[in-house]
Amino acid sequence: MTAARLVLEDGAVFPGESFGAAVSSAGEVVFNTAMTGYTESLTDPSYAGQILAMTWPLVGNYGVPPHLLENGIQKFFESNQIWVKGLVVSEYSQQYSHWNAVESLSQWMEREGIPGIFGIDTRALTKRLRERGTMLGKIIVDDPAGNPQDVEFYDPGKVNLIAQCSCTEITEYKPEQPSGVRIALIDCGAKNNILRSLLRRGATVIRVPWNFDVTTIDYDGLMISNGPGDPQMAEETVENIKKAFELNKPIFGICMGNQLLARAAGATTYRMRYGHRGHNQPVILQGTHQTWITSQNHGYAVDPLRLSDDWEPSYINLNDGTCEGIAHKSKPFSSVQFHPEASGGPRDAGVLFDRFLQLVINN
Prior knowledge:
By secondary structure, this protein is of the alpha/beta class. The chain is 19% helix and 32% strand.
């Protein structure tokens, strides 16, 4: 085993051992409370620039599935690569067992140049992040001679991660059984399961870059995807969403899409203390008793008090009262902060895709 350590910007040091790529890396340290889904989380572009700490103690026990394509989309992953800067776990399983696994987590991470560290007290780390807030950190791995390969701290909040994670050209995806509905998807770092969820329901999807003016193409409904980083970095997207408002075609945003839609509606966004990342976030639909347990991954939130009078908050987080969605009072525009496409996580909110597509058909 190779010695490694996680160093936080406040000076805290967590010694452990290396797995994955034996390289040092830096990013923003965040924690995820999910019990499963590490393959999906690592390939979720929303984690770009971040060192991910898993609160579930055992990671790697079910290995990594094969890289297969379906409709030109990775079947078992949320993108074509690992986006995290590093992975922090309490116990790494050296052996894996799963009918669909073809390699270990460490082998996959090593091939993609991503370091991991295990053997640290992730409970203590998580408590520190909850008390002091998300902070910068770095995984330092010793070289073969036992010397630390140090790196500089890296602040992903100062980088346009949306531009880095978005596609660079327009791509059209066709379902096996077309319904005739055409959905434009603004790719701010879109998870593959958004594409799968739309294709499964018969929609043709036109995936466009983050700063593309969708009003220049033909579509029936607009979806704004999830993505990493600070929504203030995507003002070009906000301006294009304002143009889309004028067409009065249905719009639905997810996660980053919720924040960008809110900014187009006149609201502001702010950085949360440590964000919501996991599969166990309860939300409630305003004015009802309808509650869902949702999958979430975001470090910024919408300030609903800054919404114009034509808009209102729709969902609220039952843990901390933060805004989990907005809706226009008279037009077919809405969004949610959580992930109805999940993967991984509970699929209760998947019905929102059905409602959106029905809205598109009826519009």
